[in-house]
């Protein structure tokens, strides 16, 4: 059985990694006024942050059309694939997973397994990378999904934003009313819970928020088992690099990489957001 792996652009997997592992990517889009850009195709993260500075209004985001999924799945079938595992950002914040599910039922001769990562960014990317490696090794879709389900049990992710206003405006923060009225100066730690973004803890400063994320990592790293981790930043490459150096020296059993919040997710988090995700490989 020949299995393809698809994910969407919000996994922010570098193109060279996607190409090497044959991961197909379907893009979400951002729109500034009347101009729409497919992230990772028409606009890079760097270009996006520049554009945000030039526009008064925040961009809007949109998911891929079902027809785009149908087109991609059909081309994979015609390339000789029997099955597709399509891994997407949390269904609690986007309809992308639902689009993959719907399209999968519209293409004959191909078994489509739509998978809700229940998260986004490089945490979702970890699932897609693992799935792709297994697919190249000839593993069955069922074996691959069982492994991703297993990864979900140890995967953790926490992030902070510089300004809660973006999340509030975009309607992507759940159960946050207690944080809002006059409390926009705090730097709450956020996480995904039951597929949506929720406040994890109230924290007053960026420095303390970063320290708290380190403490959460330390709980798992202290067990001595190998971990894979990704530092994710919204246009803060130097800060991410410094954090990586610091954490790498503290936790030799953790393999750190640096990733980023690209246009679609950064629209909701705002520039300056910083996060850390890790799992037990």
TrEMBL record:
InterPro entries: DegV, DegV_C, DegV_domain_contain. One of its GO terms (molecular function) is lipid binding. PROSITE patterns: DEGV (PS51482). Gene3D superfamilies: 3.30.1180.10, 3.40.50.10170. Keywords: Lipid-binding. The keyword Flavoprotein does not apply. It comes from the Bacteria. This is EDD domain protein, DegV family. It comes from Parageobacillus thermantarcticus. The lineage of its organism: Bacteria, Bacillati, Bacillota, Bacilli, Bacillales.
């Amino acid at each position: 059985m020949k299995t393809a792996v698809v994910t969407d652009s919000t996994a922010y997997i570098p193109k060279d990694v996607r190409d090497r592992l044959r991961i197909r990517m379907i893009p979400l889009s951002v729109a500034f006024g009347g101009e729409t850009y497919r992230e990772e195709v028409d606009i890079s993260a760097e270009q996006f942050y520049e554009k945000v500075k030039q526009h008064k209004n925040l961009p809007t985001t949109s998911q891929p059309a079902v027809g785009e999924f149908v087109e991609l799945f059909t081309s994979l079938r015609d390339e000789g694939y029997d099955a597709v595992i399509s891994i997407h950002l949390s269904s609690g914040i986007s309809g992308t997973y639902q689009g993959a599910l719907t399209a999968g039922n519209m293409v004959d001769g191909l078994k489509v397994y739509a998978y809700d990562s229940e998260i986004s960014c490089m945490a979702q990317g970890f699932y897609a990378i693992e799935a792709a490696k297994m697919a190249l090794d000839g593993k069955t879709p069922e074996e691959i999904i069982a492994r991703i389900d297993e990864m979900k049990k140890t995967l953790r992710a926490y992030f902070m934003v510089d300004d809660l206003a973006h999340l509030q405006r975009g309607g992507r923060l759940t159960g946050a009313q207690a944080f809002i009225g006059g409390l926009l100066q705090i730097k709450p730690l956020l996480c995904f819970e039951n597929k949506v973004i929720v406040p994890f803890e109230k924290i007053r400063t960026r420095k303390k928020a970063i320290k708290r994320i380190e403490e959460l990592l330390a709980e798992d790293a202290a067990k001595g088992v190998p971990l894979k981790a990704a530092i994710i930043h919204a246009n803060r490459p130097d800060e991410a690099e410094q954090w990586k150096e610091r954490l790498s020296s503290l936790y030799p059993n953790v393999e750190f990489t640096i990733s980023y919040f690209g246009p679609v997710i950064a629209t909701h988090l705002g520039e300056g957001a910083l996060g850390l995700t890790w799992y037990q490989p």
